[in-house]
Amino acid sequence: MQELAPHIYLETAYPGVALGAINWPHGLILVDAPFRAEDARSWRSALINQGGGVDRLLVNLDAHLDRTLGVRAMECTVVGHEKMAQVFRNRPISFKAQSNETGAEWELYNNLGSIRWAPPEITFTHQMYIHWDNYPLLLEHRPGPTAGAIWVVLPEHHIVFIGDAVTPGQPPFLAGAHLPTWLDALQELLSPVYQNYLIVSSRGGLIHHDEIRKQMRFLQNVQQAIALLAQEDAPPEKTAHLVREFADQFDAPPDRAALYQQRLIYGLHQYYIRQHYPVSGEVTEEE
């Protein structure tokens, strides 16, 4: 566990996503959850030793399975964006672990069993402030990677948790994305507003501005490639021809190469369908 500022922690030891913990006098605010039950127990035990107030609140940065499968095991009140809550309303009551071939981290692990969802009990649309300390914590809607993606911002401490907005060293999740909005959010992350911030990615921990720029270039290339396919009125299956070109941009370790390739196969196919064969008013699964 790394202390980013007094009582503000980052944990990157568990599979899935990087986790945050903010230990304030009123209580503990968690950012996301590990997806394995044993990891959830371990994370809870580590947090008990930190002391602090008695209340606990868990913030989900979006509805992705890597960060929501283990939420119920954390036994917290859950906060998320309204569009994230809509995703849960479209899910079955419980989840039976079987590979969906989306390229998510949880798909590498067996024996997750049957899991009951813990959808957000508190939702918001644009912004939400949490006053559990002398300084507020801001939850801010930042769509792009998914419709219900948010950032956790600590303005006084100059720390921001950006979820899957930047995925250093690995392909991003494109299935629920809107690339123009995503690029706008990344451009703002490079602005003077966040110049002196510690920026925390859910897929890489602390990141630097050069990783944000790499992410922008990758998304711009995807945007251009998809636009060319659309001009040709190509069927969605043609997106598979783009996979090798984009996969080669990542120096994937051997145990992740197939996963990242599958993430691109699924993400490009779903993104193309959503952009060029849209269903009115849809709120899609965010994987």
The CATH topology turns out to be Metallo-beta-lactamase, Chain A
Overall geometric form:
globular
Q: In order across it, which strands form the biggest sheet? A: 1-2-3-4-5-6-9
The protein's oligomeric status is single chain
Main sheet record: 7 strands, mixed
List the domain count as a whole number. Answer: 1
Q: Percentage of helical residues?
A: 25-40%
CATH class: Alpha Beta
Strand content: 15-25%
CATH second-level architecture? 4-Layer Sandwich
Provide mean pLDDT, rounded: 91
Class per helix and strand makeup: alpha/beta
State the end-to-end distance: 27 Å
Series of H and E elements: EEEEHEHEHEEEEEEEHEEHHH
**Total beta-strand segments:** 15
What's the gyration radius in Å? 18 Å
Low-confidence stretches: none
Number of separate helices: 7
- The CATH superfamily name is Ribonuclease Z/Hydroxyacylglutathione hydrolase-like
